[in-house]
Every structure is written in C-alpha cells, then in structure tokens.
C-alpha cells in the first residue's frame, strides 16, 4: 500500500497535520509492519531513545498514570519525555519534554524526518497516528531524556508505540471500548493490552479486576508482576486527605513505604501504580519528592473544575462509574446538569446508567465526524432510561450557550462523553463563552480525581 510519492512537504504544523490526515486510506489501521519498517529507516532501533522507557496501556487511567509518572519523575530531578493521545486543543499537547509541550518547530522537524524515511525506497503508507508516533520518538531520541513515558493509543500489542521494548509496562484497567477494533471479548482485550509486556521485564497491574488473560500472558513470557492489592498496596484517603503507599524495591525486593501522601486529584490506583513503576525503572523514591510531585500534578479534562463546570472525558461505563463516585462526594446545592456528547460506537446507555444517580437533567449535543452521534439519538437513549432531557443542541458550543443562560448560583454542569465534547467546552471557556453563574473563590483551574 502506498501513498502519493514525493509531494511538496508542508512548511508549518497545521500544514503537516492536514497533510498526514490525507495519506492513509483509513484513520485506524492496527499493525506494526509499516511503522516498524519506517522506524528502521530512521534508525530508531539503533540505540535506546531514553535512559529508561515506561509504556502504559489500559482502557481507562492511562492519561492519569502518565501525568503522575511525569510529575513524580520531574520532582526527583529526572529529565523526561511523555507521549500521549489524543489531544484536547493543540496537537502539541501530545508530546511533552521536561513537562513543556513540544513547540511547532520540533514537531515539524519530526514529521519531516518521518516523511524522508517513509519515501526512502519503496514508499510506505502511514496513518496519522503512526506518523505522529514516529515523529515523537524521533524527537525524544534527539533529546535522550533519562525517562520516556509512552501511552498506548489503542489496544497494546499492535499499537505503534509498541515497536519499542519497555523497561517497565503498566496495564491500568481492561474494559470494553473501541469494540470495532478490539472486539467485545474481555479476555482477548486483556491479551491485547498485555502485548506491551516484554520477557524478563517487570510489569505493574494497576487494577484488581483485570481479566485472567493479562496474568496468563505475563506468566507465559516470564514477566515479573507487581499487582495492585498484592505486591502494591495503598490506603484510602484519611480525614486529612492523606494516604499511604507500600510497594516493593526492585533491587532487594523488600517493602517500601510512603506515608502522608497528598491527594493527587487523580485516581489513587494510578498513583500507586506510577510509584511502583518508577521504582522498577531504577528510581530511588524520596518521600518529600513524591509528596511534591503528587501535589503538583495536573491533567486537563479529568474531573477538571472550571468554577461550577466539571469537565471529564469519560466515555465508557467504567470511567463514568468513577466520575459518579467523585460527584457523590461533592453535593450540589442546586441542580446538576450533564452536557453529554458521545460518538456512535460508545456505550451511551451504560454511561447514562452509571451517571444517572448524580444528574438532575441532561443536555445532549451533536458531535461532528463520521463516528458522531446526534443529540436526538442521545436524547432517545436517555428517555428510554427514564432520564429527563432538558435540551437538545446541535453542537457543544450551542449546549454551553443554552446552559450559560440558565444556570443559577448553586447549579453545576458535568461535561462528559468524549474527548471531543470536553475539547469543545474548553475552547468555549478559553473564548469566554462558558459563563459562570457566580464567581468562584479560587479563579484557578482545580483538578480532582479523573477517569482517564
């Protein structure tokens, strides 16, 4: 399969992104053959791209885990690079170098390097994500940080980031999502996620409910496992908002204990997994550095409060369950609306079922694109479940405008259902069109536990 040969290369980031979207006949084409061939041409296998590499897979919790890995490593003084997807507002969000988003010039140079290698011989067609991943790996390799952290885009075994061997693998959760590509067999999905593991290299299992296939795959490879609630323990938050972590040293295998850790504003399972993974990657944990890192971590779109508006990218029942639990801990004195926008291939009924107990009224919004679900279709799902639909909007922006005109001082709005939904709401906030019914005491963005 080939794409147009030797086209004039774009000159800026916007041009490159538009160019890459046109190069492959389908947007998602799982497999490592094409991306591996281009990586070989780029010399990405000639030497490690970083001192240590951690790869994170899972249905939910990947973004939270990556954010805490980065914050903890930076608090210990390590140089870092993180690669995540998708982005909310800017493509630059996907690649962070020492906690700073990559600039346009770096990304343009990375895409140019990929394109040169892609056309060096028989042209090789790449998807948008594959080209972006190779560009990110190229940029990371130029910097050679002490720690690189890669988030799997979809699945694990056949995801483009899996062309590199991780020193430590993390599997956060396994649930049904992306059924068109991963199917609905939870054991098979588990095997796909576990595909990031490598023989003899440790892996952290960040959930107590993983399918048996994950451990079976690890055992078949001889992977040393560090599982939540077994080798890795963590307490709940105490009355002062502190918690306790216990893991294992990679060198001696003895217990490591950290007390009085702050609430990171993200799931504690992910925090516990991040601490164990860093230990396995050779970092000697310092208690004060860990407290500093967890206190400073931030992640947009995960239980992100903008005054009375809460934004979370939850788009499957597992993630929605977590959001509902967090909302239950924050009572609403007025009326709580949910602005819901979802893609057609997501389990809308399951998401609604998890959130229903925390929502008084729903506003549905249509999304754009071939996978989009209309506001009317979402409203039908809600009404079939006996949920009150206050309004149907043709876009997230229109839903934000409708809500902004009607909110009382004690009302809240949960914006959820998709990265696209949250991204559009964030854009409205940046443009000053997401209106607060009252001034918050703290005008800064606050983050609480998130789902992704």
The gist of it:
By secondary structure, the chain is an alpha/beta fold. It has 15 helices and 18 strands. Helix 4 packs across helix 5.
Strands of the biggest beta sheet: in what spatial order?
Answer: 4-3-2-5-1-6-7-8
CATH superfamily of the largest domain: Mur-like, catalytic domain
**Percentage of β-strand residues:** 15-25%
Count of helical regions: 15
If classified by CATH, what would the architecture of the largest domain be? 3-Layer(aba) Sandwich
Pathway: Cofactor biosynthesis; tetrahydrofolylpolyglutamate biosynthesis; Cofactor biosynthesis; tetrahydrofolate biosynthesis; 7,8-dihydrofolate from 2-amino-4-hydroxy-6-hydroxymethyl-7,8-dihydropteridine diphosphate and 4-aminobenzoate: step 2/2
InterPro entries: Folylpolyglutamate_synth, Mur-like_cat_sf, Mur_ligase_C, Mur_ligase_C_dom_sf, Mur_ligase_cen
GO biological process, one term: tetrahydrofolate biosynthetic process
Domain Mur ligase central: 56-198
């Amino acid at each position: 399969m080939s794409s147009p040969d030797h086209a004039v290369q774009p000159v800026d980031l916007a041009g490159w992104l538009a160019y890459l979207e046109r190069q492959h006949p389908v947007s998602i084409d799982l497999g490592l053959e094409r991306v591996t061939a281009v990586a070989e041409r780029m010399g990405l296998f000639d030497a490690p791209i970083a001192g240590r590499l951690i790869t994170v897979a899972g249905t939910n919790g990947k973004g939270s885990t990556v954010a805490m890995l980065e914050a903890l490593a930076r608090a210990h003084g390590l140089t870092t690079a993180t690669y995540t997807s998708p982005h909310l507002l800017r493509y630059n969000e996907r690649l962070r170098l020492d906690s700073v988003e990559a600039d346009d010039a770096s990304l343009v140079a990375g895409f140019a390097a990929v394109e040169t290698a892609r056309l060096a011989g028989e042209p090789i067609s790449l998807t948008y994500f594959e080209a972006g991943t190779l560009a990110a790996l190229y940029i990371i390799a130029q910097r050679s940080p002490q720690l690189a952290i890669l988030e799997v885009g979809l699945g694990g075994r056949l995801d483009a980031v899996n062309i590199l061997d991780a020193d430590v693998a993390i599997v956060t959760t396994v649930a049904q999502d992306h059924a068109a590509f991963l199917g609905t067999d939870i054991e098979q999905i588990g095997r796909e996620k576990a595909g990031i593991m490598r023989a003899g290299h440790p892996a952290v299992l960040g959930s107590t409910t993983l399918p048996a296939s994950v451990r079976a795959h690890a055992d078949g490879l001889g992977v040393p496992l560090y599982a939540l609630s077994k080798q890795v323990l963590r307490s709940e938050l105490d009355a002062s908002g502190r918690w306790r972590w216990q893991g294992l040293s990679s060198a001696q295998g003895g217990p490591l204990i950290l007390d009085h850790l702050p609430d990171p504003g993200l799931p504690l399972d992910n925090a516990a997994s991040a601490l164990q993974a860093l230990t396995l990657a050779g970092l000697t944990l310092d208690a004060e550095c860990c407290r500093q890192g967890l206190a400073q971590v931030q992640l947009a779109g995960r239980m992100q409060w903008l005054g009375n508006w809460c934004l979370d990218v939850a788009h499957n029942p597992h993630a929605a369950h977590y959001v509902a639990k967090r909302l239950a801990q924050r009572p609403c004195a007025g009326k709580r609306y949910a602005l819901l926008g979802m893609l057609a291939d997501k389990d809308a009924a399951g998401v609604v079922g998890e959130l229903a107990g925390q929502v008084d009224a729903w506003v549905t919004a249509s999304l754009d694109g071939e996978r989009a679900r209309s506001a009317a279709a979402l409203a039908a799902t809600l009404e079939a479940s006996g949920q009150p639909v206050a309004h149907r909007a043709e876009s997230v922006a229109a839903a934000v405008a409708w809500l902004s005109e009607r909110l009382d001082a004690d009302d809240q709005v949960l914006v959820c259902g998709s990265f696209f939904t949250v991204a559009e709401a964030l854009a409205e906030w940046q443009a000053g069109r997401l209106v607060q019914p009252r001034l918050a005491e703290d005008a800064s963005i606050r983050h609480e536990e998130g789902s992704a």
